[in-house]
Amino acid sequence: MSAATSGLPPLLRHAGWVLRGNPVTALAMLGTALLVLLALLAPWLVPYDPIASNVRMAMQPPSAAHWFGTDQLGRDILSRLLMGARLDLAIAASAVGLSFVVGAVVGAFCGYQGGWLDRAVGRGVDVLMAFPLFVLAMAMVAALGNRVENIVYATAIINLPFYIRFARTEVAVRRQAGWVEAARAAGHGRAGVVLGFLLPNILPNIAVQISLNLGWAILNAAGLSFLGLGITAPTPEWGIMVAEGARFITAGQWWLVAFPGLALMLAVLCFNLLGDGLRDILDPRMRT
Amino acid sequence: MTTPLLSVEDLRVSFSTRRGTVEALRGVSLALPAGGVLGLVGESGSGKSVTSLAVMGLLDRAGRVTGGRIRFDGRDITRAGPRELRGLRGAEISMVFQNPRAALNPIRRVGEQIAEVLRAHRPLTGAEARKQAVELLEAVRIRDAARRAQAFPHELSGGMCQRIVIAMAMACAPRLILADEPTTGLDVTTQKAVMDLLATLTRERGMAMLLVTHDLGLAAQYCDQVAVMEQGRIVESAPPAALFGTPRHAYTARLVAACPRRDSTIASLTPEAPPRPAAAPRKAPAPGTSPPGTPLLLEVQNLAKRYPDGTVAVDDVSFTLQPGESLGLVGESGSGKSTVSRLVTRLLDPSGGRILFEGGDIGGIPARDFHRAPQRRGVQIVFQDAGESLNPRFTAFDSIADPLRTLDGLRDGAALQRKVEDCAEDVGLPRALLDRFPHQLSGGQRARVGIARALAIEPRLLVLDEPTAALDVSVQAVVLQLLDRLRRERGLGYLFVSHDLNVVRMLCERVIVLRQGRIVEQGESTRLLHAPAEAYTAELVAAIPHFDPSAAPQAAVACS
Prior knowledge:
Chain A is mainly alpha-helical. Chain A is built from eleven helices and no strands.
């Protein structure tokens, strides 16, 4: 290891090593970072107001003034894309965060304790999984009302079974491990063992799930708004943009739908590719 | 002199790893005559398994032969291609692996698996192969062979599985058998039966055997030549009597000393006991001489553990332990010794009986609530596999600090730092290693972390569940010395659980022999070892492989 990198903290040095071995992960990480940065800085980056319509400028193809063109109301597509990224990423992140926290904790307790809790939660998860998940999300949003929070809750609930099952199995195989018994001998109660020992140990494996899930969650949020549930026009959001743009594609005005579609695809791709590398980075056993 | 069956000349093997190239073998030379038995002994990482894998052409992708030569029957097979190796493997050279269950296909009947090996090398019909498979099972002394041939691996015991693997290895009458730790993980009595069988069969059929093992006693008993490996080199090679009687190389001498014999003491395990300025003994009552009126440290009455499926793990076990006394609990797998250790440590709930710790009944407190009981800090445990018992996400510091944080309520800061460093120093763990993760520590260092963690909150009773079973003998010697010293300095009571009567004897005044959850015999440890009253104990004692200077020549004669 060269002198330039030896001064870095071990995690960073290790991350560097993993990324050198996995250029795809490095690329995905770069893409994700760029996406998040653009979303965060969107209000200061946008060249035009994403909501104000300007009928005189409607349906302009991509040009120097409007890089990605304008839509049927003359709104700048680039500005709407950037602001939409903000909303879509926020929805995906909070939905996945919610289902991860709740699912991992519930699943870990089920896996550690077994017994009635495990059986009850297991049946509940089975029932949830028996529904077509997207239809379930649609029904929830339709019932609860078209609000951003409700999209988050619906997305979180349909992701929940995966986290519960995953955490449950991962904990169940470690339940009898020597270090779990050692933790009990060191005076940790059930909650201490589960939250302090088992959860951190299954985190690297869950990280893969999280990153895959972010991709799904974005698609899910965009899909709901595409169908007219959840976010409503004129709010800039990728799903709505695709839905609105789709009407014009037959007339040859491709840019209305192509750019939001591309943004969606890239975001999902980045998150999916991120997973494997993330696990390697987070696992201290991979560090030497 | 005739050409040896297997000759290895100046063999070099390298592995490419993340940290560059690692030389696993640095010029290994050995010769094995037809029908001979050569033992390859060494500690973990010495390169003994790599040698046998290289001979078989089974090095994994990262490994590469960088120099030297392997000849089998005069033929150079150093870089034999897959086709040539397929012809050799099974037919000329075959292998017996360490873990028999992993070597057998779990979803196929064992008879079929043997028949498959036969048909791979010989033109046989299915019926002929099946018939020969049954004959082979009879040859490895499996009773009721025709019926057992229909069994799946999981229906057979570990020793039985290893016999099947041996039957597969011998199926095509190879001239060389590579046995890589063939009995590690088996009980001593099973180990003896399997090794006796291997030795007899190879002798009867004129096969040569390369026995790779970490157990010097085993090598002494079954080989006519023993080569000692250290760091990818053979440091000494001699007949067992000479090697163990008058070792020439310093490493061999150290290894021989570290290997417990019937007359070894804790101190004799290392050539020179490290003179360590022992801290002033805090309280060191001579074992068993506590003033009258002191309650027993531990009293176990009619302890039982039954599982809902009807298995009885522990049945009617009673014993007592004085403060500062050390009691051994010996048994083979399934004897219930680990269950007893977890019942006493209150990690498991008993189904019957009482556990009294310093006069207070702790058996009645449910295991899941015991972490809140005041006695939690009084009873601690050191686990078998130190690597597996350390949280992979904790540094050594965190592992040792953990009980201090939970049970002593220490917060991060100078006090905790000092306490952890004191604990590390007590067990001889260098301070610089405290920020390492378990996988960055060696086996011996991990064992020290495990011991330091258990001792950090100063328990009165320490349950040691096979604390040295996963360690090399030289590390085992040091850890045993450490445990012995700590006990004397602190007046700790030990409940030492082990499968190795010989190790237990050195550390414990009294020993209990368990079998199938029941006490077979108990008594003073030297008496038990030299004059066992029960047949089972005698069998256990006899099965321990060892090299008696007087007995070694006979063993060599028996093997040749």
